């Protein structure tokens, strides 16, 4: 593989870090060998969730040594923001995708409660990379959304919800 292919393989790593600061993981392999994520030497604060992820093949007589920086984050960070002026020559900054969500699907369909059929049913499907459960991801997303919407809440206004939230009688 060339450097570009190795970087693309490294970007497929699924890691979970509980460390507040940046951690370094190392790979030091003599050929011939197939290098996988399980070959990363990490400490107790970093967990490799896909240790079988292929990284590279090292030919006989060759030596592969690299250091990988691991840190926590949110969302997407482009490679130029992962670069600093004091990085030595040979360091290749890579973009980071911190989202554990792989796919989301939702469906809204009409449903019936008792004799009333004017209710909606929301079905959500969430796929993750294994670093968080789908239920926890949905709960965390709801918490973030709530925090964003709290900006619009006027806490000085006292509203009576009794007129809005009235239980309908069956007829």
From TrEMBL:
A molecular function GO annotation: protein dimerization activity
Superkingdom of the organism of origin: Bacteria
Membrane-spanning ranges: none
GO CC annotation, single: DNA-directed RNA polymerase complex
GO terms under biological process: DNA-templated transcription
Catalysed transformations (reactions): RNA(n) + a ribonucleoside 5'-triphosphate = RNA(n+1) + diphosphate
Pfam families (alphabetical): RNA_pol_A_bac
DNA-directed RNA polymerase RpoA/D/Rpb3-type domain boundaries: 1-155
EC number(s) reported in the record: 2.7.7.6
Keywords: DNA-directed RNA polymerase, Nucleotidyltransferase, Transcription, Transferase
Homology family: Belongs to the RNA polymerase alpha chain family.
Protein name: DNA-directed RNA polymerase subunit alpha
Organism of origin: Amylolactobacillus amylophilus
Taxonomy of the source species: Bacteria, Bacillati, Bacillota, Bacilli, Lactobacillales
